[in-house]
Each structure stands twice: as structure tokens, then as C-alpha cells.
Amino acid sequence: MHKLNSKTPTGDIEKRWDKHLFDLSLIAPQNRAKYNIIVIGTGLAGASLCATLGESGYNVQSFCFNDSPRRAHSIAAQGGINASKNYQNDGDSTHRLFYDTMKGGDFRARESNVYRLAQLSGNIIDQAVSQGVPFAREYSGYLANRSFGGAQVSRTFYARGQTGQQLLLGAYSAMSKEVASGKVKHHSRSEMQEVIIVDGKARGVVVRDLVSGKISAHTADCVVMCTGGYSNAFYLSTNAKGCNTSATWRAHKKGAFFANPSFTQIHPTCIPPTGENQSKLTLMSESLRNDGRIWAPKRIEDCTKDPSEIAEKDRDYFLERIYPAFANLVPRDVASRAVKSICDEGRGIGTEINGEKLGVYLDFSSIIERIGEDKVRAKYGNLFDMYERISGENPYQLPMKIYPAPHYTMGGLWVDYNLMTTIDGLFAAGEANFSEHGANRLGASALMQGLADGYFIAPRTVANYLAKNKLEPVDLNHPNVIQAIDDTKERINRLMNAPEPKHSPDYYHKKVGRILWGACGMSREREALKSAIEEIKALQIDFWQNVKVTGVENDMNQTLERAGRVADFIELGHLMCRDALEREESCGCHARLEYLASDGEAKRDDENFSYVAAWEYSQEGTILNKEQLNFEFVKPSVRDYT
Ligand SMILES: Cc1cc2nc3c(=O)[nH]c(=O)nc-3n(C[C@H](O)[C@H](O)[C@H](O)COP(=O)(O)OP(=O)(O)OC[C@H]3O[C@@H](n4cnc5c(N)ncnc54)[C@H](O)[C@@H]3O)c2cc1C
Which pTM was predicted? Predict the structure, then answer.
């Protein structure tokens, strides 16, 4: 069994990162040009990393499958980014952000990493402001804040409902400067297929040019994966359609452990599905829960009525009722489960799908009455416009309809404190790693983590790795390079030439998505997980026998791209269910029906499950390794938001 070493520093938690930084080896400026680094993915984590490494003087090669780094899924982030600046003077501090994040994640994250994230949060805002990111400001000129779930302070910085877009433009501009100077060589429309390992170290990648179909190998001194999350395994999710797990999954198959794959976040406020043929769901930002009130009719017979006909006394503001202290701003897992249970009781509203109405109201009438439509428009205008464009209903006049949807993945590649995976020289940053959010991520903390990783952590830990390892150049004719290219070609060949081609990749994607949503979504249960595992095994055999990929491989072929990604989702889906089955407790997003209290709250089992599940790939059967979590600075308690 592999011994997991998280390389977490010891001592006072406030000093750990500073001490670690001092202990990391440096590379002098004049020597940095001798080193080559590959960065896969140029969303917020990757673009900020490329910019910082390039500016420091390293040679960077970056790759993304989009037609520009500006098209990364990060651009969709709406609501904001957390930082413990305490501009509101409402009691925030590094320690409070640390505590809220640990508690929000239901005490399934590493203390040292989370504390470092809270410490770096302020630096991110300073960096972004210096780049000209147009955060919202108060009349005084100070940066404005709003509240997000799981916190009783206002610490979320935002740029209307386009925070991700503005932050990405900042990171992308900084990266573009390095592209212009020649320090970063960027390749768009290039999809990583395999990691190249030489002498046990990650030394390069094989990529497919998505326009020409050309396969090529690229070598370097180390590789950093910033390839985002895998919520699209569920088929319907709030993620961009292109988001996938292929880079992380293929690294996993080469030796990188996959941590907590079943920890996936279902976001409570998304536009509900309206039919069987939908391919995407849309998030309505959590920021809306600052002022929007969530309710459902008290009586089932009112569920078909127009909401304006339901009297105030007949409305159940269920989050305010059940969780008076945090009310509509409870964490996402708690809110999602509450919405589901209301709909399971038959009190859902909106379109009926498979005999159930999947929706509750998110209502702005109180705030509009209090501050007026213009002020509400100034705060949330673009989100309201987006809702109206998609639903055809005017949310200034009618409450929005919302329902939970797959949104974010806390699971990802296992990394140590230096963000290095279990493969030497292979790092993972941003949503691609598992590190900070435990069993549930708090709103506005993903952007914070991606940028902390990219601007401040990985540049230092990658340099330390390079300084400490003597790495000879790897020739493109090295047998391991040739082997990785051959493996890629062989896989493409199998996808193009299934024995009995019948069904499109989307057909299989929908199938695996439905299985996962049913068994490994908002609630999980032993027998359902066991049958899901068997169903996914059968689906995998069916896929390789019957997948139909039209077109040719030596050209642009989006069906081939999809087929490769779906094959990986199927394998990952199997591991998600195994992970969920193995964890015989409820915590955060992981609601095992056998381990819920009578009021529906998660019942953790700290004695037996206070660990990170780090799965090791093996042809004979994936092996579970456990990283025990130690709590020295917070005391795991039952999460109480009432
Ligand atoms: C609708 C929506 C709204 C959100 N709003 C917020 C918010 O308000 N606040 C917040 O904190 N978080 C929010 N999140 C979460 C947050 O946006 C993401 O977690 C974060 O942007 C991920 O950044 P990343 O850099 O890790 O990955 P991404 O931005 O997903 O970038 C991944 C990159 O990897 C590349 N890539 C992937 N695979 C390959 C491959 N095989 N080969 C080459 N390149 C590859 C892609 O091309 C891309 O460049 C939101 C998420 C969604 C879905």
C-alpha cells in the first residue's frame, strides 16, 4: 500500500505557511530560464500560474482545449470570491474564514491547507485590484462585499454577476503579457491525452490538436494540471459542456491517486429541468440568496396555483423556518437537501417530470418592496436578465423557480501540501485537486482556491521541486514517449472502430449521468450504489462494443472528442459509486440515507471515517488508501446552522 505523505508542516497554524515558504528551495532569477514547465488548462488556476511562472522567468508551455484561455469554464463564475479582509468590520478574520471553511466542509479537509487558503485570500484581492479587475465598490470607493452561504459575515467580493469573467480577464491579461514576451508558449484547441512518465517522474504530455487531429508529444521538467472539475459526469450540470475529467483520469491511471471522488456539490439554486432532452442546466448565483427568499406552498393543492394567488400565510419559507440563524444562507448541501425533501413531500412547483414537480420559489418581492426595483437591478440585473432569457418569466414580477443541480466537485487528484500528486513532478491546482473543501465547498471559495493555487502556492512549490531534483532532458525518441503516443493512437483507434457501432457518445453519457444522479447524487444508499456499480460495469462493456464515432481521426472530430471524454466519465462514475459505498457515514454532500438523523441532517462518523479516501488505480482493482485527518485547531462538531 502506498504511504500517503501530506508533507504538512507542524507548529502554530498561523506560521506554518511562512515557515514552509522559508524552507522551500529557491532558484535564482538568472537560472530560471533553464527550466521548462508544462501547464495543462488555462482557466483561473492555470492562467494565474502561467502568468506567475512566466513573470518569474521560467519557460512555460500551456495547453487548453478551448479556442482561447478566455473561454475556460472559470468565465462562468457569477457570484464572487471570498477574502477575509474584514472591510465590513463585522467580525471577520483569517481564523473565522478558516473555521467557516472547515465547518462548511463538514470537517473532512486538511487544517493546514485551509488555513493557508484563508491567509492568502486577501493577497488575491490585492493582486486582482492591481490588475484592474473591476470589483463592485461602495460610494466611498472601498470594495463592496456581500454574503454567501455558511457565513455570518459579508466577505464576498464581486463584479456584478460576472466575477469569474473579470478575474479571468485579469489573469489572462497577465498571461498574455508573458505570451508576448515569449516566456509562455500557449497552445489552444489542444487536448491532453496522456502523461509521460520517465523514471517515475512526470516529464511531459501527449496532446491531440483538435483542429487537425495531429498527435504530438511535449516534454518538460514537470507538469501541472489545472484542468477543472468533473460535474459533467452527471451529464446535466451547471458546468460548461466541454468540462471533463479526461486529464485527471488519465493521470490517475498512470499513478496519481484520486481523492474523495464521490464528494460532488449539488447547487440548490439552478433553473429546474424542463424536459427529457435538455443537455445543460443553468446556475442562478448563490449571491441571490442574500435577498431572495426561498419558499414552497404549505399545501400540496396550492402547488399548481399561480404564486401570486398563494397568500403569505400559506407559504412555507422552509430554510428560514428550519435554520433561523443562517436562514436562506445555509451552506449548499444543507439547502439542496431541504429543497429535495420539500419536492419529495409533493410540495414542488413547476414542470412535472416523471410524476414529480422539481422546483421551489426564490422570491424577490420583499427586497423589491423594501429598496425598489432599480436598486435590485443594480445588484443582480444581469442574473435576472439571464433568468428571463432562459425561462421566459420576469423575476421582478414572478418568483424564480429553482431546483438543485450538479455544480462543483470537491473530489479530485490527491495532492500534498505542495500541491504535488502521488506522481513525482505532477502537480494539480484549482478544481482539479481535492484539497481545501472537504465534503462541501462554501460559495465563492472556488475562485479563491484556484487563484491561491495559481498565483501564490504552486509557483513556489514547483520551483522547490525543480531546485531539488536533477532532471536530464527527455528526448522525444525516449521509449516512454513513444509508448505514450502509441497508447493514445491505440485508444483513438478503438473509439473509431467499435465492433458494432450503434450509439452516439451522448447516448452513453446520458445513461451514466442518470445512473450517477440516481445513486450518487443528492442522496446515496447501499443497495442503490451496489446496483449502480454493476450497471456502470455493463455500460462500459456496451460502450466499447457499440459506440459509434462518425468522421475521421485525422481531422476536427467533435464526436471523437466526446467519445474519449465519456469513456473516462464511465470509469470515474464507477469509482464515484465505490467511494460513496465505502464511506459508511453521512458528511457534507455525502448523504447516505442509512446515516441521517431523524431531522435529515448528516450523521458523521469521525471515529471511522475522518480520512481522505485516496484511490490508487490498478488493473486488478482500484485500492483505497486513507490519509487520516488530524484536528488540532478546530474541534469537529455537529454542524449546526439553526
Ligand atoms: C455556473 C458556475 C458559476 C460559478 N460561480 C462561482 C462563484 O461565483 N464563485 C466561486 O468561487 N466559484 C464559482 N464557481 C466554481 C468555479 O467557477 C470553478 O471551480 C473554477 O472556475 C475552476 O477553475 P479552474 O481553473 O480550476 O478550472 P476551469 O476554469 O474549468 O479550467 C479548466 C481548464 O483546463 C482545460 N482542460 C481541461 N481538460 C483538458 C485537457 N485534457 N487538455 C487540455 N486542456 C484541458 C480547459 O480547456 C480549461 O482551460 C462556479 C461554477 C459554475 C459552474
Answer: 0.95
